[in-house]
Structures are given as structure tokens and as C-alpha cells.
Fold these 2 entries.
Entry 1:
Amino acid sequence: MNDPLARYSRQMILPGWGREGQERLACRTATVVGCGALGSHIAAHLVRIGVGHVIVADRDFVEMHNLPRQALYTEQDAAEGVPKAVAAARRLRQINSLVKVEERVVDVDADTVEELIGRADVIFDGADNFEVRYLVNEACVKHRIPWVYGGVLGTYGLSAAIVPGETPCLRCLLGPMPTPGSVPTCETAGVLGPAVATVAALEVAEGLKILLDQRQALLHSLVMVDLWSGDFERVQTAKGAEACPVCDERQFEMLTAQHGCWTEVLCGRGAVQITPRPAPSVDLEAIAQRLAEMGPVTSNDYLLRFSAEGCEVTLFRDGRAIVKGAPGTAEARALYARYIGS
Ligand SMILES: [Zn+2]
């Protein structure tokens, strides 16, 4: 009979891995928060390697300008405007049918983060902003779930594994959350695909040590790499003397922040996201029919898109909308209220 693990033979002969390690991986769950450039590479590694259950969460849809870095997507995904989580899951299932892949088209926020991370043995950072990272940090510290931080900007990137109770948390490492607009973003500074691939590889390697119960091999370091200058640096991390509000005092400010409908300017995209809370269940077909009287509406199983008053509006099934071209959040909300309902 065919051995289902035979496909993993080249990794099972690695030191300390073996069939036992492979079988252990098959029983483990990993969540990838954000499935853009970093998340694509991370999820592909996890699924190829045979982690039993991989959850990919992302709020966005595929666009042509994603393709230079976001390894799981195709021109067809962009043309159809498929949500990234859906397109990713579709591709990941083709890569390894032994893995249970679960897609979540969701905005990771204070309302959704705890449920999303709660079932996982390790969380991987594929986010593109600090709000989500600091939120994931709080949730992981609260529930004592290990996670691996990673970030890329330009040709430079960095990564560190965070094990609550054992290592410093993100707040310990980076201090208070940078205020929006105070740090450059990929939209303003650009991003080099191979730098993303490198940081994703660093994240996955640390995460695998956790999944394989080889925590003694964790680097306990912040690893920094610049692929263009060729600088590689590793700085040992340790808890400082000063008490951390998150992992020492267990103040979870972001987790307990006011829940409810909110708007967020999507950095560098000229777009505003509107997230009604509690998340309503939206009848996309009925709304599409209604809007079609006004002008062209495109839709697929997960979203619909229409233009109104010079803006492009993308509405997801969870009631969330991304409004492109609105001058501000107030205008975007007004547009939402007018065309979709408040
Ligand atoms: Zn801390």
C-alpha cells in the first residue's frame, strides 16, 4: 500500500523530525493572519510541509498589483476580484490534499481575533499593519498561544518568535504601537518580493520548531535582514527589567477597545473600510439586483462591486465594505448608508 507520508521523505530525514514529527505536524493547527505577500508564502510552506490544519484569514481581494509578490495568486484571481482567503485556499488545496485548509474572509479586529486564534497551536503574522500585529499580540498573550512576528519594508525585513511566558512579547520588543502615519508603508517605500520570501521562511522555521515541540531550538532573537545590502543581523531578545503593560500587567487595551461599527483608512490605498458591528448577514444577490437599476454591478460568490458618485464600492458578505475614491471616512460612511443601508 502507498505510504501517505512518503511525499515528506526529504524532510523526515532531517535531524529530530522523522515519522513521529511528521505525524505530530498532521495533528497541529496553524493560523495565518493576513494572506498578502508574507501570508501567501507562509501558507504555501505550511501546506506543502503537511501541517494538518491551516487557517488563512484575510479581509481583502486580489488585485493585479499584488501579483509580483503574493505567490498564491494568478491574473485570473485578480480579474475576478476573488477574496484573497478564498483564492489562497483554492490553490493550497491543489498543493496538498492531505491538509485541511480553512478560509476566513474576515477583518481581524477586536471582535474576531480571539475566535480566530483560539483553535491554533501557533499563529503566523502575515499582516500589513501594526494595529493588527499589536492586537494579535494581546490576544496571543491573553490566551498563551505562541505566534511569530514578521514584517517587510522595501528590501528589509525582520522576524521574531513570541512565546507568551517565555519570551518578550511584541510590546516588549517594539515599545508602544507606532501611531498611524509615523512609519513608512509598502505603498510609500515599496517592497521587494525576495525580501518577503526570506522573512516568510524565517517565520515558518521558527513556527515549525513550536509545532514539532522543539522549542529548545528557538532563536530567542530578533532577526533582521536586508537583501539588497546583504546585511544579516541577529539580536538576542530577553525580558527587560521594566514591566510590560501587555505581558506583565495583562492590560489588553486593544482587545477591550470599543467594539462597534468603525471606519478605517486603508493606508496608501486611497480607500476607506467600513465594518458594521455586529456583523450583519448580507443578502448580496438582493442588493446586487437593487443596485443594478443604477448601473453596472459585478459580483461573485463572496462580494459585489459597483460605482457610485465617483467611488468604487466593494461589499463583502459580512457587511464590510471597501470604498475607493472617497475623500474621507465621513463621505465613505454616507455612501454606505445611501446605497447599502446603515
Ligand atoms: Zn511584553
Note: The chain is about 35% helix and 20% strand.
Entry 2:
Amino acid sequence: MAPSRSPLNRPSIVQAMTELLGPHAVETGDEQLKAASVDRFKKYTAVHGIYDGPIPAAIVYPESTADVAAILRFAEENLVNVVPRTGRTATEGGLETVVEDSLVVDGSRMNGLLSIDPYDMMATVQCGVGLQQLEDVLRPQGLTTGHSPQSKPLAQMGGLVATRSIGQFSTLYGGIEDMVVGLEAVFPGGKVARIKNVPRRAAGPDIRHVVIGSEGALCFITEVTVKLFRYQPENNQYFGFLVDHFSNGIAALRELITAGYRPSVCRVYSPEDARQHFADFYQGKNVVVLVAEGPKRIADATAEAIEELFARRPHEPVDSSRIQRWFENLNWGQDKIDAEKAAMLEHSHLGYTTEVSVDWSRVSDLFDAVMDRIRREFPRAGDLTMLGAHSSHSYQTGTNLYFVYDYTISTSPREEIEVYHKPLNAIIVEEALRLGGSMVHHHGIGKYRTPWVRQEHGSAYYLLSTLKQAFDPRGVMNAGTVFPLEPDAHGS
Ligand SMILES: Cc1cc2nc3c(=O)[nH]c(=O)nc-3n(C[C@H](O)[C@H](O)[C@H](O)COP(=O)(O)OP(=O)(O)OC[C@H]3O[C@@H](n4cnc5c(N)ncnc54)[C@H](O)[C@@H]3O)c2cc1C
């Protein structure tokens, strides 16, 4: 939590925004402002109506790049903290307004589909276009972005790029960083930068990566151009296998990936995690899920490799229709969010996740170390109703581990984050870093993994902190996100 550094008081900030954008673009309702002060990191306190952090001065809704530029010019001149947002599915505190009298800049009204080009295989959209909305237009034309995070029904393109998001079909299509061709972003002071669309270039470092993953802490993304792929679900082949040990499942994924195959979906679930997804068939075992996708001959070759691989490995097969059905109900829309809220209130019970990545050689060590430390060290281990993990995104050199933990809260709602969420998150992050992995695979640093950001980047941290100093010298973009709120002795 930080005081405002602005010479303007709250009413003057609201008045200035109203003059700049018009009253229809400025929201100051009490309930809306409270809800805008947090994200899903604080879902449990929020559902109890507890909002202890600073409440923003206003939520503003730009409708054009020029509006965004005007807001950021005003913010920089008047030292007003800006929190960009689009789909509001953030999980790591990236949307929290930790500075008094912040402006939440909501890009969801910038929802124009600017162009769909099936020849050069690109789509250009404004930041507030929902991924589902885009896919609903593309798929009837036989096209797809290939991006399919579980939050697809809600997340929007600005946030998806800002968080370096990744989807369920990542092993084939990559993460968002592999999909973005070019983009437009507005930097503090109102400077507009359009990074042009080219297939590849060697014109210096890749400046797209200054923006992708910046989590609203450097700029506001206004427009995104992504690649398009052929949409041919008729070729998809679904596979499920039960294996005795988590490490056996990981070894199978490693063999497949390092041999050069690219199943779009490539997952293994520990039994604890499998129970919540595959209760009717997992039999207390680890579940491997694979999908062969793409042009028919490629999908067939991938499917053949999967079958050969498991013919050589002890397993029990799962009927493919069960895996396909599971996929069809995997994504989270507003209905599941609402059901979760009701369940949290009724049962004082909730689940969170922490996702990290590590080389193949350390995956099993990481899994075992986290499970062991939580069971031994976490003082409220008795309140855990589930602790497990899955690997869901694999690479030539390693994979991610997505730890999942559910607990029943036996403290007051206000204490939930300090007593449960933070200590559990810390153990997973610490173990990932200890084993040479990354503390965050795809949800972003937000505001709750900043204590480890220097350790994450080591001697390269100065590259990251120099971006902040260069692009946001007055520190008005999403304070406390990516970069710790309190600067260190060197001011970085
Ligand atoms: C149920 C559920 C499932 C999820 N599944 C996945 C998954 O499979 N894969 C995955 O990667 N993530 C997943 N997430 C996390 C989340 O959906 C992603 O991080 C997503 O990319 C956020 O997009 P959004 O539009 O909701 O952004 P928001 O929540 O609005 O914002 C996210 C962050 O981006 C910044 N931001 C937003 N818009 C802009 C902009 N225009 N310019 C600059 N910065 C901006 C915000 O300040 C914030 O820091 C999941 C979340 C939920 C709740």
C-alpha cells in the first residue's frame, strides 16, 4: 500500500478524467471501485466484502488509442498511478490498486476486430477483444489463433499479451509470445509505439518482448496482431493413459517431445490433482493426456508415435471419448466464477494454484520437494483438502509444474491470504528457484511474486529494472507489479 504522490486530490482526478473522456467513460460507483481494487488473488476476502487496500479514484474506459494517450499523458504529468485492465481474470494481484487514488484504465470498450487476413494469416484486434469473441469469428472461416487458455471465455487480448499467457494447445502453437506478430502500445507521457507486422527480422533486439509480459507496468497495449492457423478439429485424436508414478508420466512426455513430436496437448496429472478432473476413471493413478492435432498426416504421425510410446510403457488406457468430453468442459466462464463464489461463502473452502517451470532433469525432484515441504512445514496442513500438481506445457528442455492446493479456512476471512495462500505460494516458488527453475510459468509476477524477482533474474535483473527506469521514469504504471513497490538501495 502506498500514498498517492499526485498533487491532485481525488475529486480533481475524477473531474480531469470526465473533462478528457466524457462522463460516460468515467465510473465512480462505490461497489465498482471496490471490486476494481483487487483481482482473483484476493477472491476470498472480496467475496466477503473485505477491501482493505486503497480504492481507486475512478475506472476510466478509453475508446481509442488517442484516449489512452491522453490518459497516460495526464497520469505522468500529475503522478497518478495507472492500473491497466481488460478481461479481469488476473490471478497474481496485477490488478490491485496499491497506490491511493489510482486510475483503473479499462480497455474493454476498445473491442474492434480491425482486420482478418486469411492470406497473410494474421488478425489485428483492439486490446478489449475477447479471445472467445475472436475465435467465434475465426473458426467458421476455418481459422484459429491456436490460443486456448482456460480463461478463454473471459480474457481479452490486451491482458493475454500483457501476462505472457499460454493456452492448452501450447506444445503445438506456442505461448502468446510465439503468436504476436506486431502490436501497438502507449507509453507513459502518451507516446504511441506501433511495432510493425513482419514474419521475422534481425533489426536489433526483438522489441515486442518489451511489451509482452510487461503486466501493465511499462505501457498500455492498445492493439495486437496475432498469427492465424488452419482450424481442423476433425483431425484431432485424443489419448489418455493411467500410469503408476508421476515420474513415469513425465518421462513419457519427455521422450515424445525430445523425439520431435508436437502433440497440441501434453499433460500429466498427479493422482491428487487427477481426482478433481477424472474421478470416474483415474483409479488412484497418474493420468497422462495427449492430443494429436494439425493436418491429417501430421496428426496421424503424432498419434502413431503416442501409441508406440505407450505400447512400450506400463499403463492402462483410457477411452478417448472421456478425454474429449473432459476438454469440452474445461474452460472457465462467468458461470464457474459465480459458482466458485457461492461455494467459497457456503463452505469456507477454496483452491489456488502456483505454476513454475524447470528442466526435465529436475521435474521429479521439484514435485517431490514441494509435496514434502508443504506436508512437513505448512502449519495448517490439516486444513488442506487437496495438494497435487500437473505438467501441462512441455518444451525441448523441460516442462512446467502447475501446483494446485485446496483448503478449508479455519481462520477469519481477512487472515486467509497471510495464513494460507502466501506460505503455500512461497514454498513452491522457493523450491522452483532452488532447483534452477523459474518462479512463474504463465500467470505473471503480479504483486505477490515480486519478493523473488531479483533472485529469478539474478545478474540479468538490471536489464529488467532498466526498462522500468527508461519507459516509466516517473513510476506511474501499475506500481508494485513486476517490480517491488519498495525500491532497493540502488533505486531499481
Ligand atoms: C479460471 C482461470 C483460468 C486461467 N487459465 C489460464 C491459462 O490457461 N493460461 C494463462 O496463461 N492464464 C490463465 N489464467 C490467468 C489469466 O486469465 C491470464 O493471465 C490472462 O492473460 C489475463 O487476461 P485478462 O484480459 O483477463 O487481463 P486482466 O486480468 O485484465 O489483466 C492482467 C494483467 O495484465 C495487465 N493488462 C491488462 N490489460 C492490459 C493492457 N491493455 N495493456 C497493458 N497491460 C494490461 C493488467 O494490469 C494485469 O497486470 C487463468 C485465470 C483464470 C481466472
Note: The radius of gyration is 23 Å.
